[in-house]
C-alpha cells in the first residue's frame, strides 16, 4: 500500500517588509525593532501567518524569499510548532530565478497543492511630498512594481498551473490590497500600488481559464493595515488599534478558500476591519 503524499503549500513572499528588521520597518522607524514580546503569529505579517497556518494543518510549507536568511527565524518557529517547512530563494524580478526556484521545489517537495502569492514591494514609499505626481516617479520604481504585481504572478502561474490542471485540483490564491479595486493617486509614504489592478485582473482571467479544470483561483483583497512589528509601532496604529488587521485571522481565510467545496467556490474575498468602511 503506497504512502499518502504530504500536501505542499508554497508561500511566495513568506516574510514581511514590516517584520522586525524589514525594509519598511527600517524606513518608517529608522531601526530594527524588538519583536520578542509579540505573538509569533504576527511577526512576519500575512506570509508568515499563512505559512504557520498551513504547516499546522499538516502541509510541507515552502517559504520563498529573496534571501534565505530572511526566513530563517520563520522556519525555526514553524519547526518549534511541530510543522515542516523549507526555504527556497526566489527573486521575482528574475525569470531565471523563478524557474530555478520551482525546479528546486518540484525536486525537493513536489508539485504544489496550493500556492499563495503574497509578494509585496515598498517602491515609492520614500518619495517626498513634492514627488507625489506620476511625472516625478522614476521608471525603475514603476518597473519593480510591474515585476511584482503583474509579471511575477504571471510567471509563477505558468510554473504551477499545468500540474494543478493535470491533477484536476489545486489552489492559486493571490494576496492583494484595496488598491487593486480601482486606480488611486499615490499619496506620500505609499508604494506605487496601482499596478495591483493587474493582479486582480489576472485572478479573474485564471478563474475563467482554470476553474473548469478543477483549479481554484481567488483574489484576496486585504483592505487595511496588517499587524506586524513595524506597523504596530506606527502612530496611527498606536492611536487606533481597532484599524489593525490580525494576520492570523487573515491566514484562516486563505485556508478556508483552499478547503472550500468545489460546488461553491469564492473567487474574490475582501477582508476589512469592522471599524472602517470597505474600499470600492
Give an account of the 3D structure.
The chain is an alpha/beta fold and 280 residues long. It has helices spanning 23-29, 45-56, 72-80, 95-108, 139-167, 196-210, 229-232, 235-239, 247-259; strands at residues 8-12, 60-65, 84-89, 114-117, 170-177, 215-222, 225-226, 244-245, 268-271. The strands form two sheets. A seven-stranded parallel beta sheet has the order 3-2-1-4-5-6-9, with helices on both faces. The longest helix is centred in the middle third of the chain and has 29 residues, at 139-167. The protein starts with 7 loop residues before the first strand and ends in a 9-residue tail after the last strand. The mean pLDDT is 95.
Sum this structure up briefly.
With 280 residues, the chain is an alpha/beta fold. It is built from 9 helices and 9 strands.
* Overall 3D form: globular
Q: How many strands, which pairing sense, and closed or not: the largest β-sheet?
A: 7 strands, parallel
List low-pLDDT spans.
none
Q: Please give the count of helices.
A: 9
Number of strands: 9
Mean pLDDT metric: 95
Distance between the termini: 52 Å
What is the rounded Rg?
18 Å
As a percent range, the share of strand residues is 15-25%
User: SS-based structural class?
Assistant: alpha/beta
The succession of helices and strands, N to C, reads: EHHEHEHEHEHEEHHEHE
Report the helical percentage: 25-40%
Instruction: Going across the biggest sheet, name each strand in turn.
Output: 3-2-1-4-5-6-9
Amino acid at each position: 500500500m503506497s504512502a499518502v503524499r504530504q500536501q505542499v503549500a508554497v508561500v511566495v513572499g513568506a516574510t514581511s517588509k514590516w517584520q522586525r528588521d524589514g525594509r519598511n520597518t527600517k524606513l518608517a522607524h529608522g531601526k530594527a525593532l524588538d519583536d520578542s514580546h509579540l505573538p509569533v503569529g504576527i511577526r512576519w505579517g500575512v506570509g508568515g501567518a499563512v505559512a504557520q497556518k498551513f504547516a499546522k494543518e499538516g502541509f510541507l510549507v515552502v517559504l520563498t524569499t529573496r534571501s534565505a536568511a530572511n526566513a530563517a527565524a520563520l522556519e525555526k518557529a514553524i519547526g518549534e510548532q511541530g510543522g515542516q517547512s523549507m526555504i527556497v530563494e526566489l527573486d521575482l524580478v528574475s525569470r531565471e530565478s523563478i524557474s530555478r526556484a520551482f525546479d528546486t521545489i518540484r525536486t525537493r517537495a513536489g508539485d504544489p497543492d496550493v500556492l499563495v502569492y503574497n509578494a509585496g514591494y515598498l517602491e515609492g514609499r520614500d518619495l517626498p511630498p513634492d514627488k507625489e505626481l506620476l511625472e516625478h516617479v522614476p521608471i525603475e520604481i514603476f518597473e519593480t512594481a510591474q515585476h511584482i504585481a503583474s509579471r511575477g504572478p504571471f510567471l509563477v502561474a505558468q510554473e504551477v498551473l499545468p500540474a494543478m490542471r493535470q491533477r484536476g485540483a489545486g489552489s492559486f490564491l493571490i494576496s492583494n490590497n484595496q488598491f487593486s479595486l480601482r486606480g488611486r493617486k499615490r499619496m506620500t509614504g505609499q508604494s506605487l500600488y496601482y499596478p495591483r489592478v493587474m493582479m486582480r485582473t489576472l485572478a479573474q482571467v485564471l478563474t475563467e481559464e482554470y476553474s473548469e479544470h478543477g483549479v481554484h483561483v481567488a483574489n484576496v483583497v486585504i483592505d487595511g493595515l496588517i499587524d506586524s512589528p513595524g506597523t504596530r509601532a506606527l502612530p496611527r496604529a498606536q492611536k487606533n488599534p481597532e484599524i489593525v488587521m490580525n494576520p492570523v485571522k487573515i491566514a484562516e481565510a486563505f485556508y478556508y478558500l483552499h478547503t472550500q467545496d468545489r460546488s461553491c467556490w469564492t473567487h474574490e474575498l475582501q477582508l476589512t476591519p469592522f471599524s472602517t468602511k470597505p474600499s470600492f
